[in-house]
C-alpha cells in the first residue's frame, strides 16, 4: 500500500482530522488579550518525545520572549485502560496490572489497591506481613527518589549523578529480585499479606544496603549541595505557597517543601507505620531547592524506617491463614482435601468480596495515592480507580513555572517528578 | 471520620440536600441531590473539609440513575475524611463543576477547587458526565475525536477496534 494513499479506514480518517482546534481558540484568545503588541507570544510544542519531559508528556508552552506565560499539559499518550482491564479480572489478578500504573511505585500501587480490598473483605493482615510490606515500600520510595534524583540532575547537566543514583537503585532492585523474584512489578503484596517470606540471606544483604545508603546519600549531598550551578538553578526558582498547592490538590514532597508537614504515614498511620520513629522533612518557601532538599532528607528517613522494621521484624505467618482469602501452603495440598478445595476455588473463581465501596489513601513517593474499589459481591471488582498523585500534581506546573525562564521550567518539571504511567494509567 | 451520630448531625444541617447517609467500614458517606452538590460541598468546606482529595466516577449499571460522581473530602487539621456521592441518569448526565471560584448557589460559602479540573475532565472522558461551568471541559486521556465513554459498564473490554493501516502486508502467494 502506498504511504500517500487516502486513509484506508474510518478510524484513520478521523485520526487525521485531529487538529486540537479547541486549544487553538484558547491560545488565540490569549494573544488577543495581550495589549503589548511589541512583543509577540510564541506557542511552543514541547514533547511528547522529549528527554526532559520525563516520559511521554506533551506541553503547549506559551512564551513571551524567554519567559513562560502559560503551560497546557496534554496527557494520555500512554493511557492503557488499566482501570477498565481491572474490571475484567478477579481481585488477585488485578494486582499485576495495577502495579504497572506508576511504574516507579509498584509496591505503593499494589498496597493502595490491596488495602481497599482488605478493608472491604475485612481481612486481618499478620504483623510480620505488615513489617515486610513497610520494608519493601520504603525501599521502593528510596528507589523512586533515586530515579528522580538521577534524572533531575541530568536535566541540570550533572550527568555523573545519574550513574551514582542508578548504582544504588540497582542494589535495591537486586534486593527485590532476591525476595520476590522480580526486579520491577513484583506482585509481592497479596490480599492478606505478602506472597512469600524473605529468603535466608536477604536480611544480611538488606543490612549491608542500609549501612551503605546513608553514606551514598552523603556523597550525593557533597556533589550537589555546594555546587554553584545546582544552587543557582534551584534556589528561589518557581516557588509556590502551601495554600495554593492545597487548592490544587498537591500532596507529598511538593506540599511538604512549602512547609506543610502533611504525610499520611504520620497523620493517619496505615500498615505498620505507627510502630516506627521517623521524622517528616519540611521545607520553608517551597522553591525548587526545598523540593530537592525534602526528597533528599526523606531518603534518610526511609533508611531509618527500614532499619527499625528489620530489627523489630516479628515472627509469625507472612500471609493470613484464612483459607478463604489466601492460598494454602503447597505441602497441605498433598494431605488435606479441604486445602485442595480452597486452592481450587481461589484459583478458578477467586475471592468473593462483600458489596461496598472504599477509598484507601496511602502516602506514595509523590503524594496521596488513593485507590477506590467498588465491589458488587462477585469475584471481580466493579470499579477500580486510582487517584494518582502525578495526575493531580501536574495541574500545579503551570502555576509554578509562570513567569519563569524556559530553563527554570525544565528544572521545575524535574522537581515536580511526574510519572506518566501514573498520570495516564 | 465522623461517627454514625456525627454523620446524622451533618445531615440535619444540610436538610433536604442529603438523600441518604451511609456508614460503612468506618467511613462516612453523604448521598446528595445532584443539583445541590455545590451547596453541600461549600458547607462541608466551611466545616473544615477543605481538601478535595479525589473526584472520580462510577457506573452503577444496571441500577438507575446509573452514573455516580464521588467526592472524597479531607479535613487535614482533624485528619478526618468524608465521602460525598451523587447519582445522575445517562440522559441527563450533568453536574455543577466545583472548579469555578465563587459563592455556592445558596450563598452559603465559598467554593472553587482547581484540583478538580483534571479530575472532572477524566470523569467526563470516561463516563460522559458533563460539568456545568468547568473552564475547559475536554477529553483528557482518550483522543480528542474518540467516540463513546470507555469506563461505562456497557462498553466492552476490548471494544476498541485496533486498526493497522499502511502496514498491511499482501498475502504471499507461494508457488509449490
Could you describe the 3D structure shown?
The complex is a heterodimer of chains A (425) and B (176). Chain A has helices at 10-16, 21-33, 82-86, 91-98, 106-121, 127-155, 159-180, 202-224, 228-234, 242-247, 253-257, 264-267, 288-311, 330-333, 337-348, 389-393, 397-401, 406-416, 420-424; strands at 41-46, 58-64, 67-74, 189-190, 193-194, 356-364, 367-375, 383-387. With 425 residues, chain A is mostly helical. In chain A, the strands form 3 sheets. Chain A has a 3-stranded antiparallel beta sheet with strand order 1-2-3. A 3-stranded antiparallel beta sheet of chain A has the order 6-7-8. Chain A has a two-stranded antiparallel ribbon with strand order 4-5. Chain A is globular, with a radius of gyration of 24 Å. With 176 residues, chain B is α/β, with parallel strands linked by helices. Chain B is 19% helix and 28% strand. In chain B, strands 1-2-5-4-3 form a 5-stranded mixed beta sheet. Chain B has a two-stranded parallel ribbon with strand order 6-9. In chain B, strands 7-8 form a two-stranded antiparallel ribbon. In chain B, a hairpin with a 7-residue loop joins strand 3 (51-59) and strand 4. The longest helix of chain B has 12 residues, at 116-127. At the A-B interface, helix 1, helix 3, strand 6, strand 7 and strand 8 of A face strand 3 and helix 3 of B.
Features:
heterodimer; A: 425 residues; mainly alpha; three-stranded antiparallel beta sheet; 19 helices; 50% helix; B: 176 residues; alpha/beta; five-stranded mixed beta sheet; two-stranded parallel ribbon; 9 strands; elongated
Offer a concise description of the structure.
The complex is a heterodimer of chains A (425) and B (176). Chain A has helices spanning 10-16, 21-33, 82-86, 91-98, 106-121, 127-155, 159-180, 202-224, 228-234, 242-247, 253-257, 264-267, 288-311, 330-333, 337-348, 389-393, 397-401, 406-416, 420-424; strands at 41-46, 58-64, 67-74, 189-190, 193-194, 356-364, 367-375, 383-387. By secondary structure, chain A is mainly α.
Amino acid at each position: 500500500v502506498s504511504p500517500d494513499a487516502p486513509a484506508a479506514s474510518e478510524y484513520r480518517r478521523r485520526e487525521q482530522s485531529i487538529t486540537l482546534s479547541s486549544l487553538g481558540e484558547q491560545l488565540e484568545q490569549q494573544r488577543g488579550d495581550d495589549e503589548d503588541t511589541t512583543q509577540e507570544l510564541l506557542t511552543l510544542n514541547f514533547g511528547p518525545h522529549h528527554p526532559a519531559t520525563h516520559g511521554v508528556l506533551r506541553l503547549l508552552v506559551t512564551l513571551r520572549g524567554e519567559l513562560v506565560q502559560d503551560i497546557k499539559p496534554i496527557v494520555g499518550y500512554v493511557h492503557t485502560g488499566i482501570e477498565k482491564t481491572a474490571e475484567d479480572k478477579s481481585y488477585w489478578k488485578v494486582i499485576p496490572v495495577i502495579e504497572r500504573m506508576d511504574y516507579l511505585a509498584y509496591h505503593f500501587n499494589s498496597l493502595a489497591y490491596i488495602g481497599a480490598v482488605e478493608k472491604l473483605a475485612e481481612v486481618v493482615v499478620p504483623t510480620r506481613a505488615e513489617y515486610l510490606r513497610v520494608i519493601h515500600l520504603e525501599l521502593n520510595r528510596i528507589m523512586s527518589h533515586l530515579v528522580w534524583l538521577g534524572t533531575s540532575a541530568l536535566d541540570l547537566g550533572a550527568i555523573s549523578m545519574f550513574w551514582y543514583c542508578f548504582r544504588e537503585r540497582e542494589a535495591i532492585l537486586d534486593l527485590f529480585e532476591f525476595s520476590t523474584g522480580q526486579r520491577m512489578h513484583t506482585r509481592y503484596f497479596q490480599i492478606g499479606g505478602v506472597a512469600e517470606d524473605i529468603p535466608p540471606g536477604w536480611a544480611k544483604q538488606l543490612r549491608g544496603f542500609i549501612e551503605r545508603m546513608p553514606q551514598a546519600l552523603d556523597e550525593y549531598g557533597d556533589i550537589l549541595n555546594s555546587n554553584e550551578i545546582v544552587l543557582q538553578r534551584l534556589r528561589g526558582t518557581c516557588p509556590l505557597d502551601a495554600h495554593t498547592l492545597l487548592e490544587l490538590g498537591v500532596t507529598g514532597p511538593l506540599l511538604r517543601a512549602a512547609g506543610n508537614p502533611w504525610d499520611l504515614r504520620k497523620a493517619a498511620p496505615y500498615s505498620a507505620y505507627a510502630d516506627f520513629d521517623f521524622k517528616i522533612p519540611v521545607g520553608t518557601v517551597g522553591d525548587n531547592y526545598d523540593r530537592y532538599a525534602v526528597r533528599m532528607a526523606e531518603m534518610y528517613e526511609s533508611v531509618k524506617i527500614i532499619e527499625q522494621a528489620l530489627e523489630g521484624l516479628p515472627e509469625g505467618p507472612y500471609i493470613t491463614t484464612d483459607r478463604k482469602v489466601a492460598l494454602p501452603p503447597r505441602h497441605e495440598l498433598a494431605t488435606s482435601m479441604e486445602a485442595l478445595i480452597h486452592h481450587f476455588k481461589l484459583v478458578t473463581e477467586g475471592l468473593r468480596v462483600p458489596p461496598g465501596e472504599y477509598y484507601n489513601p496511602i502516602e506514595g513517593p509523590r503524594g496521596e495515592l488513593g485507590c477506590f474499589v467498588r465491589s458488587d459481591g462477585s469475584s471481580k471488582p466493579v470499579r477500580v480507580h486510582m487517584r494518582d498523585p502525578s495526575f493531580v500534581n501536574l495541574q500545579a506546573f503551570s502555576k509554578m513555572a509562570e513567569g519563569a525562564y524556559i530553563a527554570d521550567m525544565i528544572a521545575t518539571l524535574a522537581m515536580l517528578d511526574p510519572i506518566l504511567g501514573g498520570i495516564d494509567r | 471520620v465522623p461517627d454514625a451520630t456525627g454523620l446524622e448531625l451533618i445531615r440535619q444541617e444540610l436538610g433536604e440536600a442529603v438523600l441518604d447517609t451511609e456508614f460503612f467500614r468506618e467511613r462516612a458517606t453523604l448521598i446528595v441531590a445532584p443539583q445541590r452538590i455545590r451547596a453541600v460541598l461549600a458547607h462541608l468546606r466551611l466545616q473544615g473539609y477543605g481538601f478535595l482529595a479525589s473526584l472520580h466516577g462510577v457506573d452503577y449499571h444496571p441500577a438507575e440513575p446509573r452514573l455516580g460522581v464521588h467526592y472524597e473530602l479531607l479535613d487535614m487539621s482533624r485528619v478526618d475524611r468524608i465521602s460525598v456521592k451523587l447519582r445522575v441518569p445517562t440522559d441527563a448526565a450533568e453536574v455543577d463543576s466545583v472548579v469555578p471560584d465563587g459563592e455556592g448557589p445558596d450563598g452559603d460559602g465559598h467554593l472553587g477547587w482547581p484540583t478538580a479540573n483534571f479530575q472532572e475532565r477524566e470523569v467526563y472522558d470516561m463516563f460522559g458526565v458533563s460539568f456545568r461551568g468547568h473552564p475547559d471541559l475536554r477529553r483528557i486521556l482518550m483522543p480528542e475525536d474518540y467516540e463513546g465513554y470507555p469506563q461505562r459498564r456497557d462498553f466492552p473490554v476490548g471494544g476498541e477496534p485496533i486498526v493497522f493501516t499502511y502496514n498491511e502486508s499482501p498475502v504471499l502467494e507461494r508457488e509449490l
